[in-house]
């Protein structure tokens, strides 16, 4: 399981994350919600290794993560996606996933790309099928519509066969039907035993999807519980339920 203890991240005088503790168990789907600037993406960057911590501890299955590089964390099964999808626009959809698979193993993306071949192709196609992208396999990533790009980034994160998946606004900007289908996939991944932590603004992607919800406000956890439980919180009602 993921254990976050008293996580603190300051940027100069900005207290982006200010003493946050929570856990996510294998097979659990947990939503991290909160207004813009609450510190959600910063939490992800601290867990996945893009930012060094100002203070606190992060452990995954008992292994302390805070001193490991993002690549080392990936080898321990920790993968993330970004709020703004990061894919290789010069490659096709299939090549992006093949590259992510190779990189997960070799950690050397450039030399690995030279060895893109049939070996990873079948596995990459299976992942594209799972994420609903197979029909777009040979399209350039550059030409993808927004929703497909978000799916591709998810497929690339899955290519590393993560045990802990961090999804930063996976459904942001998607139309309702597309959002529902993506969230079904996210839920399914947790059902397969992955620990899933995702951020979200739309309560349709939280209610009925998240087993548990963490509410982050100004760098601190303001509420935690099932969607029903956090819906009783006055601040949550004001922020999300228009009261
Ligand atoms: P959220 O994802 O919840 O919208 P962020 O984690 O992106 O919030 O940001 C939390 C706070 O930290 C904001 O005030 C933001 O401006 C600040 N912040 C985030 N990243 C940086 C950075 N690299 N340098 C300086 N300030 C940052
Ligand atoms: Mg964010």
Automatic annotation (TrEMBL):
GO biological processes: D-alanine transmembrane transport; L-alanine transport; L-isoleucine import across plasma membrane; L-valine import across plasma membrane
Keyword list, A-Z: ATP-binding, Cell membrane, Membrane, Nucleotide-binding, Transport
Residue ranges annotated for the ABC transporter domain, each copy included: 2-243
Organism: Polaromonas hydrogenivorans
GO MF assignments: ATP binding; ATP hydrolysis activity; L-isoleucine transmembrane transporter activity; L-phenylalanine transmembrane transporter activity; L-valine transmembrane transporter activity
Annotated Gene Ontology cellular component terms: plasma membrane
Record-linked PANTHER family: AMINO ACID ABC TRANSPORTER ATP-BINDING PROTEIN (PTHR45772:SF7), CONSERVED COMPONENT OF ABC TRANSPORTER FOR NATURAL AMINO ACIDS-RELATED (PTHR45772)
Statement: the UniProt record of this protein carries the keyword DNA-binding: no
The protein's name: ATP-binding cassette domain-containing protein
Segments forming a coiled coil: none
Keyword Membrane in annotation: yes
One Pfam family hit: ABC_tran
